[in-house]
Amino acid sequence: MNYDFHYSISRRGLLAAVAGAAVSASLRPARASAVDQRQIKVAPGQAPLNGVDGQSTAVWTYNGIVPGPALRLRQGEPVRITIENGLDEDTTVHWHGIRLPNAMDGVPGLTQSPIKPETSFIYEFTPPDAGTFWYHPHADSLVQLGRGLAGPLIVEEAEPVAVDRDLLWLLQDWRLAADGQIAGGFGSAMDASMSGRVGNLITINGTAPGDQNVRAGERVRLRLANASLARMMALRFEGHRPVVVAVDGQPCDPHEPEDGRLVLAPAMRIDIVLDLQGDPGSSHAVIDDFYDGLAYTLTNLAYDKAAPLRAHPLDAPVGLPRNPLPAPDLANAVHQEIMLQGGMMGGGKLKGVGGMMGMGMPGMNGGAAWAINGMSMTGDGHAGMAPQFTLERSATCHLTIRNETAWWHPMHIHGFSMLVLSRNGAAVPHRQWQDTVLLAPKDTIECAFVADNPGDWMLHCHVADHQMAGLMTVLRVK
């Protein structure tokens, strides 16, 4: 599936885009419109994941396709999305990264009753932030995500951004058996207690990636979203200098990534601007080298032979207008701390769970392999989950996350975006707000957010095996 949203930039349109980026959203007149109505059916289907003619893989789909349909919404305008469940098991939909009412967050038991087979549920919300988001189930997460249930969600800026094309790569990682079908073994103890279910096929927008066709001289906004169960990625664009303009849907100070690597853990999104200055007819690899010794070429930027669209890079700012996030009051913040514990080689900390030489492997038989502050919450969420901590509404929370394990963890908070303050004592630059923060082994990260959204909210690792095996907790805003 090709998510390529073309733009034609006239002089008037370019000036409007540049001017619009400098105008506060509060000064823009409201656009009268009816509620945006969408309908999505969840059901089994087939997808040509490996790109081989005539071969297809049995998957689970949104509206019959993998990934699901790209939902393009308008910032500040209400939407009503009806989800019909055509599976033989319960499901829900979590609108990942959207700051929405608690009842619309899609966590079974905690925020809503699950959507039973052959029934439907209506989600209604008004997205306050423009940016790149996505949607996925939060019931039987490991299996449903692993069988393909994921889709992109884009909230458009009120004013157009000055680019020639707006592209989206939704990246998924699949574990296929020799016959090309999805392998069994979901939730194995080895996956649960180590790096999670890393697959053997990576797709871009649902198919094994071929060359990505580009034209010299064009400016592209590329939205990268990692919808994998567990695979971390670190992308290098050979011969190019990508500029990061947003992380997890939230605009940041435009900057080139450290060492040229765009690190994307499961659930993370990064928006970049690429000025395509290669020679017509040339080809440039996009390489994923996250795992030591296992680098591979994800795809290639293949330039057509046409003359450059323009002789010099587009003369327009690349920064995006900021979203209306409340600023943390750090001087009067409430301090909270959580510690990530467990896993293989993680030093224990889980009562009744041994290591390879102990009572058994962590995560065996669906048991806990991980804990947060000594407490393991397994599964997808359920009624009665005691909050790790409670915040008064509108209080600023200064949250410290310590990773005491030997593994990487992308920690995702529901209902909020967090301003990342420091990593291992060093200030994090570029004013980055994130809903999914990646911690390397033994990392300590400090972040802050304003608790302006009441309800019980999940905070969990987005490596699905880790979440299901206990690396999950709840915070309450009252």
UniProtKB/TrEMBL annotation:
Query: Which InterPro entries would you find in this protein's record?
Result: Cu-oxidase-like_N, Cu-oxidase_2nd, Cu-oxidase_C, Cu-oxidase_fam, Cu_oxidase_CS, Cu_oxidase_Cu_BS, Cupredoxin, TAT_signal
- List UniProt keywords, sorted A-Z: Metal-binding, Oxidoreductase
Molecular function GO labels: copper ion binding; oxidoreductase activity
Q: Identify the residues that the record assigns to the Plastocyanin-like domain, covering every copy.
A: 53-158, 169-281, 385-478
User: Record's GO cellular component, any one?
Assistant: outer membrane-bounded periplasmic space
Q: Name one Pfam family in it.
A: Cu-oxidase_2
In its keyword annotation, does this UniProt entry include Oxidoreductase? yes
PANTHER family noted in UniProt: MULTI-COPPER OXIDASE (PTHR11709), MULTICOPPER OXIDASE LPR1 (PTHR11709:SF2)
* Name listed for the protein in its UniProt record: Multicopper oxidase family protein
Q: What is the lineage of its organism?
A: Bacteria, Pseudomonadati, Pseudomonadota, Alphaproteobacteria, Hyphomicrobiales
